[in-house]
Amino acid sequence: MRAVLLLSVLAAAACGTTVPTAQQPAAVASADGLAPAGTQAQPQGTQGSSGSAGTGRTPGLVPASSGSAPAAGGAGAPVPATAARGAVTATTVTIGVSYAVNAGAANAAFGGKGITTGDEKGEAEAVIADLNARGGLLGRKVVPLFYQRDAQSTATTSSQAQTECTFYTQDHHVLAVLEGNGPVDWAMKPCLTQKGVIAVTAHIASLDDDGTARTQHVDVTGMSISRMATAMLSAAQSQHWLDPWNAATAGKGTTPAKVGLIGYDLPEVHRTVTDVIVPGLRRLGTTLVSSSTIFITVPQSTADTGASAAAVQASVLRMRSDGVTHVVFVDQGGALTLLYANEATSQSYYPRYLGSSSAGWQALLTGGDIQPKVLTGAVGAGWEPVIDLAAPARYLTPQAGTCLKLLKGKGFSFSDPNAEAVGLAYCDKVGFLRAAFRDGSWATNSLGALATARGLGSRFGPGRHDGAAAFYAMVFNGSDMTYVGAEQRL
């Protein structure tokens, strides 16, 4: 669970919902918010969107009468099949919790010196202890099974994912895993799916893009890549992002926009560029420069980061040579933004950026990792106030306040926005489990709207497992990013 941003530089943040209480089902949005619900590893002991309530069952759920321990929801309520293997007993529920060490050092080595993650394990312990003090999960005490990841590990992503999945599904047994942020999480989900274990994440950008391979899992506060692109294009239109721009002076230009794009070489990103971004830009009267539509290979180990950094630097040279004046970022944690922005600064090249919360502009700016000038003219879609804004207080709701009060009361402090976001994310993930199992069943499809501590609210339903449900257009005001206009729903 590296940093919220960088692929991770930034972690999945927890920011603060602006969803009005009236829009939240009473059974989900309780007065106490979500906090109450809200190396080799070593064990440490909706109304649906269609308007109808579903059964909420997913593969791996069996009736309690099949021999598993009784569920809190009463006789016959389904509980996960993993209960038969010891994840759920008459008195306890075991959940996996992945956390990272050396994340700050890993980010610093990548250039993200102002991006840290705080005491991840300690914060998770505090949130789970608070949950147990309020009755636990399924009427049982929650027992966390921690898995420590080394953010500076030299092992490949696939090998790390397989080792971790084996730990959770063969060496031990868990009802669900509270995952982190980044390639290891994505790589582990197919294995967890096969074993019938639920993965709960709180990313910024989500790869849980309504695909059937991931319907068992939930990204509580992330926005799918395709919806992220839709929100970005909406902001581009409302904020006149395509107006002529001079990339040499970082000011108004006189010639039509030439648009480049940078994103990761992932199927979800390619599909989004083809199905959403290209037609969306066409409707706005422009298109992508083909030679400046660049996809960066996702590093599979720390040994690959140098090559990825070099590829991003080369993309800046390519776009500058092509005369690109506007750049679309399909980022997933800020790494692309960090590398691109600093290389562009070194070349005195200042195209106009279009991005989102996942670019982590303000967090990188606050940490001193990028220079303000590169954000001149930037337009984006924001749903993570703690990551997006220098002063996010007006967008934080009681859920965030409850969570921060709990963590600070236990002695935790946050040195930067990303560290705060990580703490809030634990409240969201634990709180989601409490809401999803409130009647003894895995009720994702019947949750509907859900207030979170981290973003602008979540919404779940049949076929929707990426939670982020609203965004603001955001712009750079000369010193910081700011939200503009009204909240927009997705």
Structure, described:
The chain has 490 residues and is α/β, with parallel strands linked by helices. It has 2 domains: 4-222 and 394-469, Rossmann fold; 226-391 and 472-489, Response regulator (Rossmann fold). 31% of the residues lie in helices and 20% in strands. It has helices at 103-110, 120-133, 157-171, 183-195, 225-238, 267-283, 305-322, 335-346, 361-366, 385-388, 398-409, 417-436; strands at 4-6, 8-10, 61-63, 78-80, 92-101, 141-150, 176-178, 198-201, 205-206, 218-219, 223-224, 245-246, 251-252, 259-264, 288-296, 326-330, 352-356, 379-382, 448-450, 458-460, 470-476, 481-489. Strands 15-14-16-17-18-21-22 form a 7-stranded mixed beta sheet, with helices on both faces. The protein has a 5-stranded parallel beta sheet with strand order 6-5-7-8-10, with helices on both faces. A two-stranded antiparallel ribbon has the order 1-2. β17, α9 and β18 (379-382) form a beta-alpha-beta unit. α7 packs across α8. The model is unreliable at 1-9 and 12-78 (pLDDT under 50).
